[in-house]
Hints:
Blueprint: E1 3-8, H1 12-15, H2 18-28, E2 36-42, E3 51-56, H3 65-75, E4 82-84, E5 87-92, H4 96-106, E6 111-116, E7 119-125, H5 128-134, E8 144-150, E9 165-168, E10 171-173, H6 182-191
Antiparallel strand pairs: 1-8, 2-7, 2-8, 3-5, 3-6, 4-5, 9-10
Helix pairs in contact: 3-4
Amino acid sequence: MCGIVGLYCKTPAVEERLGVHLADMLTQMSDRGPDSAGVAVYRDPAAPVSSKLVLYHADPAYPWGAVRDGLASAFGGDPEPELRSNHAVFHAAADAATATAWVRSQHPELRVMSAGEAIEIYKEIGHPERFVDQYELRTLTGSHGLGHTRMATESRVTTAGSHPFSTGLDLCLVHNGSLSNHASLRRTLRRRGIEFQT
């Protein structure tokens, strides 16, 4: 059974320690999900008429400068990314749908982990304690966060299959369990225009 944790901060003192609390909770849930771990945190909102994208590439040495320069050329500004292992957080001077479409067309080798005003999703395969250290989770601040430790029962253990899943702008989903009718649900949703990333 997977582990699910969450925290909504009601005071600035707790907001400053959001990452510490999420890290401790994920570590405590390790026995309920040793295959992968992930978090969605809400922090540092993008400026008006801008968006925040979290991009992923398996190689921690990926040359993010080309993405930075391309975003600056396409939308203006100099969006220097914040790097956390193999994830990069960019602030783009464009709405999230436009910036996401640009990334997908110009850099199809990258995965958009999250997009919106304030959400940041980080996830990776491996033990939750390793995830906490690899992504320096304890240093994160923010207003609220959601975390997941996965115990895979039916599908491969991959970064894309790890939780949280981005389900829309500033939205995410974690769950425990499996869907026995996933194929028919996918067909129905595809007919309605829903795009799947996993």
